[in-house]
Specification:
- Two copies of one chain form a homodimer.
- In chain A, strands 4, 5, 6, 7, 8, 9, 10, 11 and 12 form a nine-stranded mixed sheet that branches.
- By secondary structure, the first copy, chain A, is of the alpha/beta class.
- In chain A, strand 6, helix 11 and strand 7 form a beta-alpha-beta unit.
- Chain A has a domain of 250 residues: TIM Barrel, CATH 3.20.20.120.
- Chain A is 40% helix and 14% strand.
- Chain A contains 16 helices and twelve strands.
- Chains A and B meet through helix 1, helix 4, helix 11, helix 12 and helix 13 of A and helix 1, helix 4, helix 11, helix 12 and helix 13 of B.
- Chains A, B: InterPro entries: Enolase-like_C_sf, Enolase-like_N, Enolase_C-like, L-fuconate_dehydratase, Mandel_Rmase/mucon_lact_enz_CS, Mandelate_racemase_C, Mandelate_racemase_N_dom, RHMD-like.
- Chains A, B: Keywords: Lyase, Magnesium, Metal-binding.
- Chains A, B: Its EC number is 4.2.1.68.
């Protein structure tokens, strides 16, 4: 009997991270890292796991969106589904009624990504390989077949993508060996949350250098005087050689971004991340022109490959920051990796939150082995929060991600966590904590 | 006692329009025009109505998103709310947790728009004025205060917006008189749905001309041979002087759009609408350069003012098509009207569906009276579907919208309709019709 997807379960899981100001930045003063967690089950008892990352309120909408899309997955034959997740991705993104709510953006797009990633997790488990290895073992033709080129051909055609992948193919085996031996570079955002005091900032900066990082990141954009003081502390703590990226989380308009960053330039910032609206391609291009040689980075909120395409066409970014859970899953991220390779722009994935490190490491490692073929100027963000909740957590040492070896996409959350952090009725949200998750009256205290 | 918002009710209302192929286009073969309908009620018994327009599946997500945002509205003092809906708009769009699901796009943004529009409806009822008149009676300073300029200042500053509005102010009274006497130009899409046969197309084209329209619109992009034949039929039916716009509803990539439209150029199309992804600013600019003097139009899926800003900055569009229910309501559309005026690009609102004509006419009429001061090269889309369900339906005569005079934003749906079309349990969806709303296996028949 044909094995089929028998169910799609989805769960609202929230971690009360706002209680300690972990993850606080200029636009997200009180995030509760959360997920609409997705589990596909098959008639033969196999599973695929995925998640839609969120920061608290609204997770119920991601859960609802997964449920709205689930009928397009349930009942599908597993062999066909895992042989061509791109077909599912196109159906989910292209549903002629649901696409009105995007198209290809927002909650419905992120939900599609959660489902598509869960199918890739299932495929990788079935193949007995970590996802990065499954992808790196696909032929250039198979990889190109997984991308929807409809809106991309003015920047990247199927033939150009094939040529890129074929050029990289002969070196795959050697790079896989290097990856397994040496891992993939990481950078850390742990020191730099806005909610931390100066003493904690300095201490965490020193610890990051001691742990082997040569790139750290600080949140900025709350208050200029504070930023000047904090960057001074950080620069003194890490010395002149360790790179310090800064991240404004979209707080500025274009003129503000340019003005503010000119005040911070003396601390030699490596990149400015999310200086303005993630939708503002032309704004990023203007900021980049004004601030060079400071690099411009964005991507964690870039909602689809069409916007990444334009960021590259307009020479608006120096660093492409893919996110595992923003776009419609592995397939659309594959498109972005190919676009970045075509334009010669390095990819430094966004991670942190909950599960983002676990998922996105597979894409960066696949990129190294089979697409860009390089780790130069590349690093995956790392934040040391919440990894203990994963069955196959990331492994970091010497400032590098170790390549996962467990089959799948590392998305599975441990069962106890799902019970404890289920919102709003898990024990971690008991005693009325769930009622205290409304927006604070003022965010003045974040400065 | 202070009057407050006592409740936000929202309802899933769907019209089974797909049964007759009304509204069929290249990307929406079987739309069921729908709405997440929003009713605010106050402690004094007043009401404000709004809606989030959708095309069927997924309406439940718009309803859920309104419910997720509703706690930010319930309990608010009515006088403060209606004196400054911009403050609410900023809070809804800026919620530091929910914005992760956008930001400023997709379901959460559309839901914010439904709520903000309902507040404006309440404000206009309270003032005893149709919304266009309420807006047109605000001072330039009040109007500028209703716009969030955070991401717009590189294209339009507060001072520039003030100057625009002050320049238009002296002519307001005279233009209001003209509007009330003559109405506002309309164009019709009624003839041009892809699902209609040639005979019906020709007949509806002739009827449109007879009814006084000098601009009609045809859907294209299903099949080139069919499009050539259909445009030939339409051009013959309407003669050389009536303008024919065409609408591809995002079916093409950039090179396809240019190639396909070169084949249709001989029929003198007035504009090509949505030639590609609504996110592709640079793509629209390339298409416009390649196809001039054929105009390029887009906007019904442009998700926020930042993207409209770039379309104008990049000289990517000749026609800005605002939609009443895509962005975060009246406030964000006010930003778009100001941007369009600054760049001297006419606004021709998208309408049709259910309720879009009713709502958006207010914005176009306000634009004429107080912003652009012109109806030249401007027209509001008109489709003669579903108006009977509104308490204050649009009035069309001689190819023109008559200015509404009933207080409010014309968003209120009649009570019987809400009962009959409620999804999935209203009588119109009884006998299992709701179960037949899944995507058809093939869309081949749309050609």
């Amino acid at each position: 009997m044909t094995e089929r997807i028998s169910s799609v379960d989805t769960l609202d899981v929230r971690f009360p991270t706002s209680r300690h100001r972990d993850g606080s930045d200029a636009m997200n003063p009180f995030p509760d890292y959360s997920a609409a967690y997705v589990v596909l089950r098959t008639t033969a008892g196999a599973e695929g796991h995925g998640l839609v990352f969120t920061v608290g309120r609204g997770t119920e909408l991601a859960v609802a969106a997964v449920r709205s899309l689930a009928p397009m997955v349930v009942g599908q034959p597993v062999d066909e589904l895992i042989a061509d997740p791109g077909e599912l991705s196109r159906r989910l993104v292209g549903d002629s009624q649901i696409r009105w709510l995007g198209p290809a953006k927002g909650v419905v797009h992120m939900a599609a990504g959660g489902l598509v990633n869960a199918v890739w997790d299932l495929a990788a488990r079935r193949a007995g390989k970590p996802l990065w290895k499954l992808l790196a073992d696909l032929t250039p033709e198979q990889l190109v077949g997984q991308v929807d080129f409809r809106y991309l051909r003015d920047a990247l055609t199927e033939d150009e993508a094939l040529a890129l992948l074929r050029t990289a193919a002969p070196g795959r085996a050697e790079r896989e060996r290097i990856l397994l031996a040496e891992g993939y570079p990481a950078y850390t955002t742990t020191p730099g949350w806005l909610g931390y005091d100066d003493e904690k900032l300095a201490r965490l900066c020193r610890e990051a250098v001691d742990a082997g990082y040569d790139l750290i990141k600080l949140k900025v954009g709350g208050d200029l005087t504070d930023d000047v003081r904090r960057l001074g502390i950080a620069r003194q703590a890490v010395g002149p050689k360790v790179r310090i990226a800064v991240d404004a989380n979209q707080i500025w308009g274009v003129p503000d971004a340019i003005g503010w960053m000119r005040e911070l330039r003396r601390f030699d910032p490596y990149w400015i991340e999310e200086p303005t609206s993630p939708d503002d391609v032309l704004g990023h291009a203007a900021i980049r022109r004004a601030l060079a040689p400071v690099k411009v980075a964005t991507g964690e909120h870039v909602h689809n490959a069409v916007v990444f395409k334009q960021l590259l066409q307009a020479a608006a970014v120096d660093v492409v920051q893919i996110d595992a859970c923003r776009v419609a899953g592995v397939n659309e991220n594959l498109a972005v990796l190919l676009l970045a390779a075509k334009f010669g722009v390095p990819v430094c994935p966004h991670a942190g939150g909950v599960g983002l490190c676990e998922l996105v490491q597979h894409l960066a490692m696949f990129d190294f082995v089979a697409v860009s073929g390089s780790t130069e100027d590349r690093a995956i963000e790392y934040v040391d929060h919440l990894h203990e909740h994963f069955v196959d957590p990331v492994r970091i040492s010497g400032g590098r991600y170790r390549a996962p070896t467990v089959p799948g996409m590392s998305a599975e959350i441990v069962a106890e966590t799902l019970t404890a952090y289920r919102f709003p009725d898990g024990p971690q949200w008991a005693d009325g904590a769930a009622d205290r998750t409304t927006e604070p009256a003022t965010t003045a205290e974040i400065a």
